């Protein structure tokens, strides 16, 4: 049982790491899912909102550009803003109305060289180049070719907020002579950031709940596994009497039931071994005592020259030695696991062969053995099966009074073949019917108590069984065996 001891820390470590493994199994996929999903949703929402802002700003710029006269815009020269010329004032009034109506931060008009003609919200004087236009050169090239465009990147204003610019071309007689620029704030990033923080908080809460679920699940699994481990360690230490408690969980319950079956088998095996050892010690002690007694008598007779008496003592010693030999053979036959050499066996021939082997014993006891067997084919080990039937018939002959009849019948019943051995003996007392198949249990003075257990072992090895059938007036043992699937070829 010592090999079980080193398993204790390993099993404890395995149970201890179960919680951590379940936590990882629960939390890691969920964390990855939430992180990837949150990042993807945030990026998607930001991209959609940026595109929507750019579309709105370019629409405002296009609507404004339709109200700006390209010819009059080109007449605005540096210094008109300080003098407040009528053309400049009209353009500034238009841009101011657009800014106030749309809520944007800045609206300005530039020519194709990027110089300001009017700037509302930016404060740049007429003729000044706008620095931000260098960032949006690609977009401006599209605008000056007659298309709308919005800046691809957000830029940060002096107030710390993010902004985007939409552009639309200003035309004079179909020719692009400038552009209207509209700067709008990306104010949606505030609610989007709050939404992102809320999602992160909700994800953390969900992860916390999952962690608790994983912890409770791990405990629910670890406790029955710990009980199962304790039962296995008890069995390993040699405690075969304490039952393995059942478990409600299906999978662990199956393990518990199988462990209980194993414990019961080991307990039964241990009990049989103890009975066998006790039986062997008891059975061997008697012939050894007789051998010792007659050996002493033989020595005295040889010294006295009594050869006739010495010959009788030698015969008694030989008889006891033969009995010891039979005990050893029966013990080995019961203890060893004999492989079956299956072959097609005719059932009726097997019964007649068993009868022939016991003809001498039956004649000495003046007992008739009558065989009535139906023809059938068994797929079996003929020698082992003959030994089982011989044991049954021999017990019946020994239990039958002189002049009695032992009946051996064989009948096919469906997929099985049943052999019944009946004798008119005294029968088996009810109190002993459960013990007659225990090794070394016998009511005879010179019996080993291994005949019936060995016969049952042989029957079960063939897929059959041996049982005592309570029948009024007779003792009946019934040996059931499976029939061969196909008859042998002729």
UniProtKB/TrEMBL annotation:
Domain HAMP: 219-271
Keyword terms: Cell membrane, Kinase, Membrane, Phosphoprotein, Transferase, Transmembrane, Transmembrane helix, Two-component regulatory system
Transmembrane segments: 20-45, 199-218
Membrane-protein topology: Multi-pass membrane protein
Classification via SMART domains: HAMP (SM00304), HATPase_c (SM00387), HisKA (SM00388)
Record GO terms (molecular function): phosphorelay sensor kinase activity
Stored Pfam families: HAMP (PF00672), HATPase_c (PF02518), HisKA (PF00512)
Reaction catalysed by this enzyme: ATP + protein L-histidine = ADP + protein N-phospho-L-histidine
InterPro entries named in the record: HAMP_dom (IPR003660), HATPase_C_sf (IPR036890), HATPase_dom (IPR003594), His_kinase_dom (IPR005467), HisK_dim/P_dom (IPR003661), HisK_dim/P_sf (IPR036097), Sensor-like_sf (IPR029151), Sig_transdc_His_kin-like_C (IPR004358)
Cellular localisation: Cell membrane
EC number: 2.7.13.3
CDD domains per UniProt: HAMP, HATPase, HisKA
Residue ranges of every copy of the Histidine kinase domain listed in the record: 279-485
Name by which UniProt lists this protein: histidine kinase
């Amino acid at each position: 049982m010592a090999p079980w001891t080193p398993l204790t820390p390993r099993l404890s470590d395995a149970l201890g790491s179960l919680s951590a493994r379940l936590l990882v199994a629960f939390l890691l996929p969920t964390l990855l899912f939430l992180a990837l999903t949150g990042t993807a949703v945030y990026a998607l929402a930001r991209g959609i909102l940026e595109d929507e802002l750019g579309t709105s700003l370019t629409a405002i710029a296009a609507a404004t550009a339709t109200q700006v006269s390209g010819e009059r815009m080109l007449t605005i020269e540096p210094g008109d803003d300080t003098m407040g010329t009528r053309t400049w004032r009209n353009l500034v009034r238009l841009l101011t109305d657009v800014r106030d109506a749309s809520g944007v931060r800045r609206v300005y008009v530039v020519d194709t060289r990027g110089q300001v003609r009017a700037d509302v919200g930016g404060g740049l004087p007429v003729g000044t180049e706008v620095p931000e236009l260098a960032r949006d050169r690609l977009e401006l090239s599209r605008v000056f070719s007659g298309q709308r465009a919005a800046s691809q990147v957000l830029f940060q204003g002096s107030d710390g907020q993010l902004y985007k610019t939409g552009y639309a071309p200003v035309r004079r007689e179909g020719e692009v002579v400038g552009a209207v620029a509209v700067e709008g704030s990306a104010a949606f990033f505030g609610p989007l950031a709050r939404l992102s923080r809320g999602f992160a908080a909700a994800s953390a809460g969900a992860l916390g709940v999952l962690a608790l679920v994983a912890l409770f699940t791990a405990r629910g699994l670890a406790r029955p596994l710990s009980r199962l481990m304790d039962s296995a360690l008890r069995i390993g230490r040699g405690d075969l009497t304490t039952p393995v408690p059942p478990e409600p969980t299906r999978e662990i319950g199956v393990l518990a039931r199988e462990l209980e079956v194993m414990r019961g088998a080991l307990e039964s095996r241990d009990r049989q071994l103890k009975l066998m050892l006790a039986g062997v010690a008891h059975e061997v002690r008697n012939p050894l005592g007789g051998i010792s007694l007659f050996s002493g008598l033989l020595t005295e007779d040889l010294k006295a020259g009594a050869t006739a008496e010495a010959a009788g003592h030698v015969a008694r010693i030989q008889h006891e030695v033969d009995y010891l030999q039979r005990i050893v053979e029966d013990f080995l036959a019961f203890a060893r696991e004999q492989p079956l050499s299956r072959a097609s066996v005719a059932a009726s021939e097997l019964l007649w062969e068993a009868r022939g082997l016991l003809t001498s014993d039956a004649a000495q006891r003046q007992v008739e053995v009558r065989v009535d067997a139906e023809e059938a084919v068994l797929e079996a080990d003929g020698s082992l099966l003959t030994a089982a039937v011989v044991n049954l018939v021999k017990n019946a002959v020994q239990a039958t009074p002189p002049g009695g009849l032992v009946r051996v019948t064989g009948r096919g019943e469906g997929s099985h073949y049943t052999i019944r051995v009946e004798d008119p003996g005294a029968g088996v007392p009810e109190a002993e019917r459960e013990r007659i198949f225990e090794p070394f249990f016998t009511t005879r003075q010179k019996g080993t108590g291994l005949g019936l257990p060995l016969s049952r072992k042989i029957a079960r090895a063939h897929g059959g069984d041996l049982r005592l059938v309570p029948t009024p007036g007779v003792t009946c043992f019934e040996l059931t065996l499976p029939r061969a699937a196909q008859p042998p070829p002729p």
